[in-house]
């Protein structure tokens, strides 16, 4: 059973306090959370559950969507993308480049995901080929298809670049498709974290089960 960290056991913020005795006889429940309270950023149905139990339950209904993020500049947006990936319960998050990434914006949601590291683009591409999950780049580059005019594959890996620089040339070449979010103002690009959220939501409109709790 994975123990919560100090941030998860803080006494302030949303959540619930200690569970009154007697405690339910449920192996999914974490004794530390039952005694100290559960103030984690989790759905109410997961209150007092151990991390391992939550992950096991999420694994029963993961979406066949993967997210890949190029980690060349320790971009603070990576954490935000990971948090959104958790919200959409994706099958996996792939960090390409540096193993250490900026977790601040993730709000410890990465512990409920399957996070994979790829040292370079070639390694991600090899995984894509072996698993049969196509890479779909998200960047407003020449030749990209407007997101609103395309249906993303049900099984795919959306690939995002760092804030400002976008996808590298090598990654663009590795992606079989390239989509872009249509913009209507003066800015050259939108925030990378926002772009990831928009694209995942677009995928969900086609493939997520709206009846799923």
The poorly predicted ranges are 1-11
Spatial sequence of strands, sheet with the most strands:
3-2-1-6-4-7-5
In the CATH scheme, the class of the largest domain would be Alpha Beta
Number of helices: 6
Order of secondary-structure elements? HHEHEEHEEEHEH
**Which architecture of the largest domain would the CATH scheme give at its second level?**
3-Layer(aba) Sandwich
Question: How far is the first residue's CA from the last residue's CA?
Answer: 25 Å
Shape: elongated
Radius of gyration, rounded?
A: 19 Å
Oligomer: single chain
The largest pleated sheet is described as: 7 strands, parallel
Biased composition (Basic and acidic residues): 25-36
Keywords: Methyltransferase, Transferase
InterPro entries: Alpha/beta_knot_MTases, rRNA_Methyltransferase, SpoU_MeTrfase, tRNA_m1G_MTases_N
GO molecular function: RNA binding; RNA methyltransferase activity
Secondary structure topology:
Elements: H1 31-36, H2 51-59, E1 63-71, H3 77-87, E2 90-97, E3 115-118, H4 121-131, E4 135-138, E5 145-146, E6 156-160, H5 169-174, E7 177-180, H6 192-207
Parallel strand pairs: 1-2, 1-6, 2-3, 4-6, 4-7, 5-7
Helix pairs in contact: 3-6
GO molecular function: RNA binding; RNA methyltransferase activity
Protein name: SpoU rRNA Methylase family protein
InterPro entries: Alpha/beta_knot_MTases, rRNA_Methyltransferase, SpoU_MeTrfase, tRNA_m1G_MTases_N
């Amino acid at each position: 059973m994975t123990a919560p960290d100090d941030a998860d056991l803080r006494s302030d913020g949303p959540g619930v306090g200690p569970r009154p005795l007697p405690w339910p006889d449920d192996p999914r429940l974490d004794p530390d959370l039952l005694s100290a309270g559960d103030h984690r950023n989790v759905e109410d149905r997961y209150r007092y559950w151990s991390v391992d139990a939550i992950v096991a339950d999420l694994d029963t209904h993961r979406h066949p969507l993967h997210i890949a993020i190029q980690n060349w500049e320790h971009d603070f947006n990576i954490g935000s993308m990971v948090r959104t990936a958790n919200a959409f319960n994706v099958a996996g998050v792939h960090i390409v480049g540096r193993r250490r990434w900026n977790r601040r914006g993730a709000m410890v949601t990465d512990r409920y995901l399957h996070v994979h590291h790829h040292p370079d683009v070639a390694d991600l591409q090899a995984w894509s080929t072996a698993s049969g999950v196509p890479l779909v780049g998200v960047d407003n580059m020449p030749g990209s298809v407007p997101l609103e005019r395309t249906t993303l594959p049900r099984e795919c890996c959306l690939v995002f670049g760092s804030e400002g620089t976008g996808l590298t040339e090598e990654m663009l070449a590795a992606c079989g498709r390239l989509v872009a979010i249509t913009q209507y103002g003066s800015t050259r690009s939108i925030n990378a974290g926002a772009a990831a959220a928009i694209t995942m939501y677009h995928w969900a409109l086609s493939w997520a089960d709206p009846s799923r709790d």
